[in-house]
Inverse folding.
């Protein structure tokens, strides 16, 4: 029989949970304090535990720690009241499977949570839910433990209606993680709207976020819905939140505190239930100490903080990541082992974005099946001083044009009867010249576009597939 431990000092709450699960055929054991918890004979008998974050004689996190140590297979749910959500989030970081807020609002959700966690504790096989969702969203996790812990934790807190702050260096994938959080939440069918707070001016940013009424300023010819209103039932992603001006920070603080905002030029408060995910490559705590970011706004944003590790801290994933990015380009190129070693050693200040750009550029200027040796890597990676370029083999313009002149002269001689060459042979020679012409013009265009195949193809009116054909069929 499935056995559930309930560590709760509020008798009514404990009785409710016990009755709820006993009616479903579960066995329950109730302890009202840490002393009674210490007297339990067989901790291994429990598949699931509901633990109040505050007991009379002991912190719920201490109970969690002791139980996970004595019964690692037991899944734990922390029960928390208003104002202790950060403690519950800390509990998840320390091994809790989930948390619920009291008073309970959705009993069916608690039942579903319990069933799922009990099944997990009984050893269900297969890919973890968080990893499966990440793979389906093209989120590259690799084998790095920190990335798996990050996405597993994100999966647990995604369904909660709490604000999330994502920090990480430029190019680490903050928006990718934000989309993942949205997909793992109950809002996944609702809009996901993102805005870069540093990419537009202060006046335009406020209009984009809050909307405006007709006549609010010059050019406001109609009412406009802002992102807070448009994303009211979904997720609003505020990228580079540190770039928001002080005036905008004040207005953002009001929305986070009250759920209300005012359109520019408007007089009627409006409400939003949008889930806020903010991101910054700047450490907001340091920015707050320096006075460039409001401390009270930081407190509102930093309910849950997710920090994405830079690529240099997950070097073991770089070879697999290179292969994944090559597959996304649909190009058949191979990086030599020496090249991969150099790329693993490189620090990647631009992180995932920089690596993706290097792979795309390499694929664009390389022939199908080409082996990418160290001399074909950017100088900053290979340590060589030459710029990033792939030598483009081409025939001398003078030689190519001379071949055409010679061929043209022969066509004239055949036509006049001065050359005994048969027509079929002449047509074969003509086809060879056609391919030579295409290849020569492609090489010339690649040279003029610094090896950029997309630009070269556009100039010639060809597709990249046609370019590959002509270069491989000389």
């Amino acid at each position: 029989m499935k056995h559930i431990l309930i560590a709760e000092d509020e008798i009514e709450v404990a009785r409710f949970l016990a009755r709820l699960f006993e009616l479903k055929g579960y066995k329950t054991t109730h302890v009202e304090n840490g002393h009674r918890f210490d007297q339990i004979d067989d901790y291994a008998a429990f598949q699931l535990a509901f633990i109040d974050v505050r007991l009379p004689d002991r912190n719920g996190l201490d109970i969690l720690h002791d139980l996970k140590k004595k019964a690692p297979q037991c899944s734990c749910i922390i029960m928390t009241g208003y104002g202790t959500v950060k403690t519950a989030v800390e509990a998840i970081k320390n091994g809790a499977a989930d948390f619920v807020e009291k008073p309970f609002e959705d009993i069916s959700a608690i039942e579903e949570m319990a069933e799922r966690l009990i099944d997990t504790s009984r050893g269900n096989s297969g890919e973890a839910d968080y990893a499966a969702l990440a793979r389906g969203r093209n989120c590259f996790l690799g084998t790095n433990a920190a990335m798996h812990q990050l996405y597993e934790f994100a999966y647990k807190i995604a369904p909660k209606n709490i604000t999330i702050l994502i920090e990480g260096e430029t190019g680490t994938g903050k928006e990718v993680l934000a989309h993942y959080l949205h997909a793992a939440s109950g809002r996944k069918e609702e809009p996901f709207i993102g805005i870069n707070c540093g990419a537009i001016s202060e006046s335009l940013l406020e209009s984009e976020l809050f909307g405006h009424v007709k006549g609010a300023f010059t050019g406001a010819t109609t009412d406009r819905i802002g992102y807070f209103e448009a994303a009211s039932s979904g997720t609003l992603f505020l990228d580079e939140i540190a770039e928001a001006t002080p005036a905008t920070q004040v207005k953002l603080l009001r929305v986070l505190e009250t759920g209300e905002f005012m359109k520019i030029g408007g007089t009627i408060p409006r409400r939003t239930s949008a889930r806020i995910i903010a991101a910054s490559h700047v450490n907001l705590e340091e920015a707050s100490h320096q006075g460039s970011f409001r401390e009270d706004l930081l407190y509102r944003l930093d309910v849950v903080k997710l920090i994405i590790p830079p690529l240099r801290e997950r070097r073991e994933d770089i070879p697999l990541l290179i292969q994944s990015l090559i597959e996304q380009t649909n190009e058949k190129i191979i990086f030599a082992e020496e090249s991969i070693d150099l790329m693993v050693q490189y620090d990647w200040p631009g992180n995932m974005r920089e690596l993706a750009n290097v792979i795309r550029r390499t694929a664009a200027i390389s022939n199908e099946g080409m082996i990418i040796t160290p001399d074909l890597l950017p100088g900053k990676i290979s340590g060589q001083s030459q710029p990033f370029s792939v030598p483009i083999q081409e025939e001398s313009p003078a030689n190519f044009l001379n071949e055409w002149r010679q061929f043209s002269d022969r066509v004239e001689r055949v036509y006049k009867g001065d050359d005994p060459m048969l027509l079929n042979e002449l047509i074969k020679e003509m086809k060879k010249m056609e391919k030579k012409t295409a290849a020569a013009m492609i090489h010339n265009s690649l040279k003029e576009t610094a090896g950029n195949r997309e630009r070269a193809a556009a100039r010639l009116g060809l597709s990249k597939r046609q370019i590959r054909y002509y270069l491989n069929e000389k």
In short: The longest strand covers residues 75-80.
